[in-house]
Amino acid sequence: MSVRLDLEYKEGLDELGERVKRDRSFLVNEAVAGYLARQRWVETHTREGLRQAKAGEFASDEEMAAFYDRVLGGKQV
């Protein structure tokens, strides 16, 4: 498989590779693995959120107030 990269990315990979003693191929594989993991996480959680919404599983006002207290110090957005 071949991929065309912007010169800026290629140079960045080469510079990073020199510092961490890894070749460009290793770094690209690591980057792709991280990207795929993040996308899978987003997709899984989005599907679960949609499932919960369709099932009418919403947080109560009390649960939301507790969330705001815990995470945002009581500030609601």
Briefly summarize what is shown:
The chain is mostly helical. It has helices spanning 7-20, 24-54, 61-72.
The helix content is: over 70%
Instruction: Measure the end-to-end span.
Output: 46 Å
Q: Strand-residue fraction?
A: under 5%
The number of distinct structural domains comes to 1
Q: Count every helix, treating DSSP H or I runs of 4 or more residues as helices.
A: 3
Q: Please outline the major beta sheet.
A: none
Unreliable stretches (pLDDT < 50, length at least 5) are none
Whole-angstrom Rg: 21 Å
Mean pLDDT: 94
SSE arrangement, N to C? HHH
Task: Give a count of the beta strands, DSSP E runs of length 2 or more.
Answer: 0
Structural class: mainly alpha
Q: What oligomeric arrangement do these chains adopt?
A: single chain
Envelope shape: elongated
Structural notes for this entry:
The protein is mostly helical. The chain has one domain. The chain is built from three helices and no strands. The protein has helices spanning 7-20, 24-54, 61-72. The mean pLDDT is 94.
Looking at this protein, list some descriptive labels.
74% helix, 0% strand, 77 residues, mainly alpha
Topology:
Elements: H1 7-20, H2 24-54, H3 61-72
